[in-house]
Amino acid sequence: MPISQHAIDRLALSVQPLIFETGVEEAPYSTTRGTVFLVGYEGRPYVLTARHALQPDNLVPICVFPSDTSHQLIPLEDVFYVPQSLEGEDFVDLAVIAMDTNRITHPEVAGARLIDLALSCGEWKRYASEAQFFVIGYPEERSIFNYETYEFRADRMILLGRYGGPSSLPYLHLLSILDTLSLRTFSGLSGAPVFAWVELPMQRPTPVLCGMVLRGTPESGLVHFLDREVLLDAFKVKRRLEQQAEPE
What we know:
This protein is mainly beta. It has helices at residues 5-12, 107-110, 117-120, 228-245; strands at 15-17, 19-21, 29-30, 35-41, 44-49, 62-63, 76-80, 95-99, 115-116, 132-137, 143-146, 151-154, 157-166, 172-177, 193-198, 206-217, 222-227. The strands form 4 sheets. Strands 1, 4, 5, 7, 8 and 9 form a 6-stranded mixed beta sheet that branches. β15 and β16 (206-217) form a beta hairpin. The longest helix is centred in the last third of the chain and has 18 residues, at 228-245.
C-alpha cells in the first residue's frame, strides 16, 4: 500500500526550515541550512535539529516558525547539545531546543503542531526490510530570499527511500533514496525527521519516527540518519537538567 499522503501532510506541519538572522537590514534572513521538527516530550514543546546545522562554534540567532503560513516566531529558551570539544562522534550531532512557554502568547504559536514522541516511536527495525521510508526536509537549493519584497521561500520536499541497513558508524543507519528529485546536494536536510511507513496484518498502516538526518549526497543516493533512541536519550537528559533547575 502506498504511503498515505494525508499522513505525510499531517507530519509535515511539524517540520520547518532552520532560518538564521543575519543582522543585516537589507537581508535580515539567510536561506535555510538545516531542517527542524517540532516535538512534544513529557508534556513540553521542543525543537529538534542537527547540532552542526546550528553552527554552535559561531552561534547566531535562529528563527523557527510554527507553520508554513505564520509570520510569528516561536520563542526559544535554551539549547542542549554535547560540546564538540568533548565528543567528536556523529551520535552526539543533535540539538534539543526548548520553547519558552512563558512567552507564547500568539494563537498561531500556541497552535503549532507537535510530533508526540510518546505516540510516534513505535517498533520499526523489525519491519525495516519491508517498510517504505520517507524524509521530510528543506533542501538549501530550494530556499530563496527575495531582497526586494523581503519574502522568504523554502520548499519542503519529501524523499522516499528504502532501509539500507546499519551504518558502519555507531548509532547511525543508511537510507537508500529512491528518487533524489534532481537535487544537486542534500545540504539543508540535516535535522530532518526520518519515518517508516509500517504495515502489519490486521492493523492500520502507521508512520513511525526512526531518527534524524545527519548527512548524505545525491551522488551516493544515501542518507545517514541518527537512531531515534539517541534522540530520546537526549530528551531524557534535557528534562533532567530542567527539573534540577526548577525552584523547589
